[in-house]
Amino acid sequence: MKKKNSQCGRRGERVFSNVCVLPSFIGVLIFFLIPFCIVIYYSLINNPISAQFVGLDNFRRLFQTVAFRKAAANTAAFSLISVPLAVIISLWLATLLERNIPYKSVIRTFFLSPIMVPTASVVLVWQVLFHNHGTINQLLETFGFSGVDWMKSSHGQLIIIVMFLWKNVGYNMILFMSALAAVPRDILEVAELEGAGKIYQFFHIKLRYLSPTLLFVLILSMINSFKIFREVYLLTGDYPYDKMYMLQHFMNNTFNSLDYQKLSSAAVLFSLVMIVIIAILLIAEEIFGKDVES
After folding, report:
1. What domain range includes position 168?
2. Over the stretch 79-89, which tens digit does the pLDDT of each residue have?
């Protein structure tokens, strides 16, 4: 009798948990899964009216588009530079603030403050700094250097890299500080008694315990690097200088021209690339952090 009651209780808990999860599942289904399936469908037909299946022709046409190749190259270059820098700088700051240094709370507040600043305000500050007749050029001219038209030159990508780091390093730093605080102190004490230096402790002990946080920060920074479109769009508009023309510019302009097939193909391709990258990161984290979990 007791066994039957316990089975009924567990069944009731499962039903209750499923009912609680159901609204979220319906929301994901309506707003994510179904729209993504529609995007895949659009990427495989010639147009929404005749809806003739064309296979991979839309993807071939996409790769033949000069604007897409330029946007993909710029986005890849930006992410390959900004994401590792964001991870390395934030991890370095976290290890620095782990020590007993003066004004630690002030430094934390300074690096976290960009999170609270609206995007429009950030863009306004950057326009004042890097305009052709802005603050940076005035400082350069004061010291005898010639000014640079930052927004319309190859230096433009440097501006958005600095903006990305300024906006994201603080939050990543807090995540790493939390992970460093969770590293077992007894293991570090034993390593120190055995003569292990700070560098050895960091690479052979701390970094292994940081692997889940490192994976999360990498994925988060990668996602944030693809959101830089807002800042660049507010800085330069629909068609910026070549080096600042990102994949989101291409998608936005393609949407405005109502070329749904090309837009859908780019979205599907972008999703596949992201899935592959995240899968590689998950596999690497599983291999790297296996001995820590055991």
Report:
1. 65-293
2. 999 999 999 99
